[in-house]
Amino acid sequence: MAGSPATEANISDAIETPLLDDVVDGNVDYKGRPVKRSKSGRWKSASFIICVEMAERFVYYGISVNLISYLTGPLGQSTATAAENVNAWSGTAQMLPLLGAFVADSFLGRYRTILISSLLYILGLGFLTLSTVFTSVKLSECQNAAKVTTCSPSEFQVIFFIFALYLIAVAQGGHKPCVQAFGADQFDGRDPKESKAKSSFFNWLFSASCGAITVALVILTYIQDNLSWGLGFGIPCFIMCFALLLFLLGTTTYRFQVNSAEMSPFVSIGRVFLKAARNWITTSSASSMQEESQGFLPYQGSQEFQFLNKALLVPDGSEEERNLCSIGEVEEAKAILRLFPIWATCLVYGIVYAQSSTLFTKQGVTMDRSIGPSFEVPAASLESFISVSIVVFIAIYDRILVPIARSITTRPSGITLLQRIGTGIFLSFLSMVIAALVETKRLQTAQEYGLDDKPKATIPMSVFWLTPQYLFLGVSEVFAIVGMQEFFYDQVPSGLKSTGFALYLSILGIGSFLSSILISVLQKATSRHGHESWFSDNLNKAHLDYFYFLLAGLSAIALAAFAYFAKSYVYNQASNT
């Protein structure tokens, strides 16, 4: 349809356009016309996308970071129930990008998926704000009537709130991977200058996101705790409307990637595994010798996973020549399989990552959070230490460390992406060791002042003792999270770029689920025979220090496994990493 934004598929005219020096191959504008390098994409388009990402992160963290306080406060849930609900919602929100990426890469394209997800986001935020208004009115009426025992919200209000939360999770699942991938699409990886700019884009996208998160942690948590939950959830709704408008304003500058594949890349890769399984015990006198010029990824490691080569075979007497898998399709399937060990060994990092918004916050609640005679730091805003450390260190990394490393290694990114991820895992290990030592000190202080049996008492120990563990975890994200973003985007086949981002997000999602399972198992195991659980509601008798030491040990094991697989990993030759 003329005048509508072009998607990555069904644009045959653009594929037939001859290449020119200033034309970006494989990309079109919003009307389906070939795009000029000098007038499209790059930082001009990326600036719109970075602003949209900042707005979305402000919104998401404005809801998620203080969610446990709303569940245990106005909704009246217990700490254990609220923690389970937060972990379940957070894990679901981090896993849904896999579905969003599938829809984008197979059907809608990134641009349209972002549009639809933004509308769902706004709808979910509107419902969320409305539900808090209902709840506050109910509580106000019941308090005025002095019926304290009936001040809990109705079942409908709770269900409506949870529905709004999961609608936001669905919207985030489509929005998050597509915005990041669409931003990276604005840089041509085959052009040396744009390739270097793309690496910086990932750094600055993450830095800008963390800046927005910091603002949300400081401002929204204060509004929610001290003014109104309705206002605290209503502001994100307004911000998301602004983000959608800003995204639309950049439409004329965007580059839209053309996907010339005849079938969905998911179908193509699935077909390879299916045919390889069918041909597992067959003999063949013929094989597919065609090598497609488009979509073929020239991997040095193509001798790996040779069982998939059976997808190229035609059993004797078969008439399936027309449905042969190409060498390119087999190589794409191998590329996905090659990523699995790296993905799996990063899962422990996802478990560590989940602690900052749960147990770190619960530690802070028990400590002295006062600044001056009258101001008290909101417990949820402590996570801003992570964001601040990221914003500061991103600049140091991009402007100082990368140029130094580049002069030594001659790589555009300074160090390889796997080296960057490994460094992040090591720093997360240090964060857990520090967290365990600080928690040991907190428990000793509680015992010294006789506060063991006073869970609501403030321990005379400044909350800023937690700063080092937050800072180390923040710096670890500069290496691990940004490294995973660029690595999975760079190493997946060309038709699965949104899925690449979803893979890194799934690490955080599964990490959240694994954290919940691990805590549940340890709580049952450590509370036997009348003993206090490691996760007792009375943190002064709990043993979060043991749990942090356990996570440090798991991180060390995961780092060793990661190093083993990273050493033998063969990068896509088209990559500069």
List keywords for this structure.
single chain, Growth Hormone, Chain: A, 577 residues, globular, mainly alpha, 3-stranded antiparallel sheet, two-stranded antiparallel sheet
CATH architecture classification name of the largest domain: Up-down Bundle
- Outline the biggest β-sheet: 3 strands, antiparallel
Low-confidence stretches: 6-20, 285-301
Using the CA coordinates, give the radius of gyration. 26 Å
Number of strands: 9
Average pLDDT for all residues: 81
Give a topology summary.
Layout: H1 12-15, E1 23-28, E2 34-36, H2 42-64, H3 67-72, H4 79-95, H5 97-108, H6 110-144, H7 155-184, H8 192-226, H9 229-249, E3 256-257, H10 265-278, E4 284-287, E5 313-315, H11 327-345, H12 347-353, H13 359-365, E6 367-368, E7 370-371, E8 375-376, H14 384-409, H15 417-448, E9 459-462, H16 467-491, H17 497-526, H18 544-568
Helix pairs in contact: 2-7, 2-8, 2-9, 4-7, 4-17, 5-6, 5-7, 5-17, 6-7, 6-9, 7-17, 8-9, 8-14, 8-16, 10-11, 12-17, 12-18, 14-16, 15-16, 15-18, 16-17
Walkthrough of the structure:
- This protein has 18 helices and nine strands.
- With 577 residues, the protein is mostly helical.
- It folds into three domains: 50-248, MFS general substrate transporter like domains (Growth Hormone, Chain: A), CATH 1.20.1250; 265-333, no CATH class; 346-577, Growth Hormone, Chain: A, CATH 1.20.1250.20.
- The chain has a three-stranded antiparallel sheet, with no helix packed on it. Strands 4-5 form a two-stranded antiparallel sheet.
- It is globular, with a radius of gyration of 26 Å.
- Belongs to the major facilitator superfamily. Phosphate:H(+) symporter (TC 2.A.1.9) family. Belongs to the major facilitator superfamily. Proton-dependent oligopeptide transporter (POT/PTR) (TC 2.A.17) family.
- InterPro entries: MFS_trans_sf, NRT1/PTR, POT_fam, PTR2_symporter_CS.
- Pfam families: PTR2.
- It is a multi-pass membrane protein.
- GO terms for molecular function: dipeptide transmembrane transporter activity; low-affinity nitrate transmembrane transporter activity; tripeptide transmembrane transporter activity.
